[in-house]
Amino acid sequence: MLLGACFLLRALLIAIFPETVTYLSELLPIRTPYFGTTSLSLFVAVVATEFANLFINRLKAIKRAISTSGNEFELLLSSSFFDAHLLQFTMDSGKFYIGWVKELPKPFTTSYIRITPAFSGFRNNDKELVFTTQYLTVYASYIEDGSVANTNELKTDLVLKADKINSVSFFDMDMYNRFNPVQE
Questions:
Q1: At what angle do helices 2-16 and 18-27 cross, to 10 degrees?
Q2: 151 phi and psi, to 5 degrees?
Q3: Which keywords label this protein (predicted)?
């Protein structure tokens, strides 16, 4: 379509300014028929793309791309990133991290996931979660004493190697407590 539009533009310019088009054609390094028209279509494509990007919401475009062609892993990551859902990452070492995805990795290319942790711990011999670190109270204490204005200033992000992750799932503390009532 773009090439067709450039051919129409060329025909219009030849009809209105034939001498100018001939002069510009002689300035081109390659004297092949329609070389200028095809070169113009390439230039117009780049300019039109940059112009169109000014009006496109990048986050919506990324979310739509992941929802239409992403795998299950990428869909979970995007849900955490866009909708602030907690995810539980169980590592092959038995350690687990519960947190929010900090940034979306490039699909099929990035082998690391960056998260902001909320909890961490390990799985015991019965594969039950044993919580060892509660990050949220530490974050709150920094904010309460005025050391930081928000959690982004704390630099507590963790980078997890994707091939060391055994499983990823949504995590809801209320649901976890219902499945695992406190033993008396």
A1: 120
A2: -70, -20
A3: Membrane, Transmembrane, Transmembrane helix
